[in-house]
Structure formats: structure tokens, C-alpha cells
Amino acid sequence: MPEARETAVYTHGHHESVLRSHTWRTAENSSAYLLGVLEPHMRILDIGCGPGTITAGLAALVPDGHVTGLDREPGILERARTVAVERGLANVGFTTGDVHALDFPDGTFCVVHAHQVLQHVGDPVRALREMRRVTRPGGFVAVRDSDYAAMTWYPGSAGMDHWLDLYRRVARANGGEPDAGRRLKSWALAAGFTDITATSGSWTFSTAGERSWWSGLWADRTVASAYAERAVEGGHATRERLREVSAAWREWGTREDGWFSVLHGEILCRKEA
Fold first, then answer.
1. Could you tell me the maximum CA-CA distance found in the chain, to the nearest angstrom?
2. φ, ψ for residue 58 (rounded to 5)?
3. DSSP 41-85
4. What would the pLDDT profile of 130-186 be if each residue is shown by its tens digit?
5. Is the pLDDT of residue 17 over 80?
6. Contact 128, 187 (CB under 8 A)
7. 208-224 vs 226-233: helix axis angle to the nearest 10?
8. Which is nearest to 173 in space by CA: 8, 57, 60, 58?
9. What percentage of residues in the chain have a pLDDT greater than 90?
10. What's the pLDDT at 7?
11. What phi, psi does 99 have (nearest 5°)?
């Protein structure tokens, strides 16, 4: 069998507007469905850890255990290491790797966690099989992914409708699946899991501060990130259209009655003992 490798292109890249979102994430606001099964001694693998804010939160919850943060991009791991040092965490480390071919022996971890990862990979079922392989019998694989088609907002905006259509086209052209949230249980079954708890969670942005932050990062991302470059290079949008979509985000962010909800699918899969 040929060596497994990533075939998808990460849509967002690591522009400041992307990291603005990623560094906001915590174990509490992004992995609440997992926290109830954690025990102080556990060894955890956090796949797609990015800047490490969730990783650090998990490490604080397993003081007698250890958390390994894994990401494809070595540059972002320097930021993750800084977060761990700033929080005084000695039970966390970071490494590069590919979820399709994890460089760990079978049964290494009590928990394998991935937040907003499977929507960006080329073969999510194979990724889940690898996550299952490196999980100990009786341990857990925990995955959470947003579902773009299920995102909803008020008031309506033709420009933001264009954003949603554009983003989904670009993500799929890059080899990913932007509506991953609804597919997680199906993918887990295909990967061989039989003990699956499937739930959902959401983020809601409605206060003036939340609207300004959420609309601002998407307005910037739409014109200045790797996503913007891929949208233009792939023939999905012109620079002018991107500027129009960016302006629509900023206009929505000024609306006092503005409301935006991001739906996430979640699966907590227990590996048979």
C-alpha cells in the first residue's frame, strides 16, 4: 500500500485574520462535549492544534497526564509553544505530522482530538482510522467540525450569500468538505467505530463586540488570506467580487440587530476495549 499523505490544500492558510479566530478558541468554547470524559492522568493527541490555545486548555485539565499538539505547519507550532510557556504548562509538547499517517505506535493515547480538521483533509475516513489506531482500547476519538451550509445569520445579505457560495466552492476545489459537521457520524461508521455519541454545538455572535470581531476577521480574510488567493487563482471570484463580499461582511457587522450562528457537528467515539 502506498504511504498515506494529505491530498487537500488547507483553505484558510495562516494569515493574521485566520489566527485572530484560532487563538480565540479554548477547550471550553470549542471542546465542551469532550471535557466530561477527561481524567487527570490521560495522554491526549490534539490534531491540527494550530496556535495551541485548545491544546493548552486540555493540558491544564490533565495535570498528571500529557498532551501532544500536532500540526502540518512547523511555523505555527512556535506560536503554540509560546502559549504553553506563557501558561506555565510543563505537560505539553508539539510536533509536525499528517493525520492520514500518524507517526505513533498503536494504542498510544487515551484521547485523540481534532477540532475543525476533517473538513480540510483529503480522506476523512482514513484520518479517522488512523486516529482510532493510535487510541488505546477504551479510549476516545473526539472530533468537532463546522457545517458551512448550516450557518445562518440575520439580517439577510446578498453579499454574504455570495460569500457562503464562494467559500464552499473554493473549499471543495481544494479537496475538502466544508459541510463536514453533518457527515462526521457517517465517516466514523465507515472508519469502523461502533460506539459513537453524536451531538452538535454552536457559536453565536450577536453583541456589538462579537459582531465587530467576527465580521472584521471574515472581511479581512476575504481579501487578504490564502483563501482569497485561491479564490482568484482558481477562477472562483475576481478581486472586485472579493472586495464586494468583504464590504458586505463589514456592513453586517454594523447592524444592531445582527446575529450569526455557526453550527458544529461533534462525535465522541469510544474504541472497543
1. 56
2. -65, -40
3. T-EEEEET-TTSHHHHHHHHH-TTSEEEEEES-HHHHHHHHHHHH
4. 999 999 999 999 999 999 999 999 999 999 999 999 999 999 999 999 999 999 999
5. no
6. yes
7. 50
8. 8
9. 90
10. 67
11. -60, -25
